[in-house]
Design a protein that fits this description.
Layout (H helix, E strand, L loop, with lengths): L5 H48 L2 E5 H10 L4 E5 L2 E5 L11 E6 L4 E4 L16 E7 L2 E9 L8 E8 L1 H53 L14 H50 L4 H32 L8 E4 H13 L7 E6 L4 E4 L1 H18 L5 E9 L2 E8 L6 H4 L10 H4 L8 H11 L3 E7 L3 E9 L4
Parallel strand pairs: 10-12
Antiparallel strand pairs: 1-3, 2-3, 4-5, 4-8, 6-7, 7-8, 9-11, 12-13, 13-15, 14-15
Length: 473
Amino acid sequence: MNSISIRKRIFIILFASMALVMSLMFALVYIVAGAVMEKTLSEYLISAVDANTDKIIFLEKDVAEIIKESDNDDLFVDYGSGVLQIDDDFLDMLSDVESALYTQYGKLLYGNNSLSRNMPLEAFDASRLYRQVISGKRYIVYDRKITGEKLDGLWIRGVVPLTKKQDQLEQITRSVAAFIPVLVIMVVLVSFLASSSILMPIRRMKEIAAAIVGADDLGKRIETGSNRDELYQLAVTFNEMLGRLEDSFNREKQFTSDASHELRTPVAVIRAQIEHIQAKEPAESEYIEAIETIGRQNKRMEKLINDMLGLSRIEQGEKRYPMSETDLSEIVRTTVDDMSRIRFRNIEVVSKVEKEVIIKGNRNLLERAVINLIDNAYKYGRENGRTVVSLRKEGGNAHLEVSDNGCGISEDALGKIFDRFYREEKSRSEVEGYGLGLSLVHEIVSLHGGAVKVTSQKGTGSRFEVEIPLLLR
């Protein structure tokens, strides 16, 4: 089955489904038609028997003798103190209905009943309609009590075979069987057209995917159309996937470009120092200066590589960084205490931390996020300025806020501040770093199911706000 194409599978399923439905419909028609025919026969049998009750008259014997002389067609049968006059139409058979006249105790007085010798002789007890099987054949039998003056104790039994019903059903079956080839052709045609119609949007998706591969263009999208069915949802999902792939591809291109650019400078400096030393016999002081320069550049590259590896590991999620119940209040308090001792550019760091702010998180990552936010405030803060760190519970979230009164961020840069390697042009030469610190903060917060945002005004300072869901207990 795995080697059969989807189109063939759909065709087979549609064909089998339609064939099954048609078979069930035929069976239903057959059953209903049989039931209707049997009901019609039963009603006709009852009608015929009821009509024959009017064809029996009780006469006194002297009256019967007079009538006999003028009516030679009717039958006259002695019964009790008189005579029964039975109309000559009593024996007429329509639709194979046979009628016979009986006494209360089952004795046949007159009429046709092919079942009389095969049915047990027994007294009649109540008017009824029932089925009887004799020698493998099915019959409908109707016993009817006759009412009238001096007619008590007389019964009419009507019998009709069900062979006529079977003949009509067989005729229907033959008619349907003759039409089956046409039905098969129609089912095949409808199944083929339906499978082609169902797969048409999927073929379009395949064509667009092939075009993307051939042209190396992730910007193409599938037309979703207006019919919001499952295929519409599939197209929307496919387009979202393409969008994410395009975004990821573009970010990776930018990442590679920026990483190459950032690594080029320290590598060039190291190479220049080595070539300078190799070109002449330098003094001891020049050796020391070259080694110090190479060491500084080595540390810069080491930090860059560690930050890049950190981002890569964070993207792997909880597989690399398991989560557990964590006291964010304690993490912020100790981190602020440690960072406040640095007093970089004589910037004061103060905090206001609410107790027992508990979240589900990874302690190492959360410490790094807080350190990076404070470090960013140090780098871009005003000399002799102030950085305020606060933590509180707010609306089911842990709300962390780090604000400074530094140089601020331009409006154009606010939308890019969390991008990897992004730094405003004026700050590149003034502030040491690679522009990965805030990217790490963003990834760490996202891994914890939270969000980070920044508000800033050029020249007045910046405020970073982090929200992470509290741990529900």
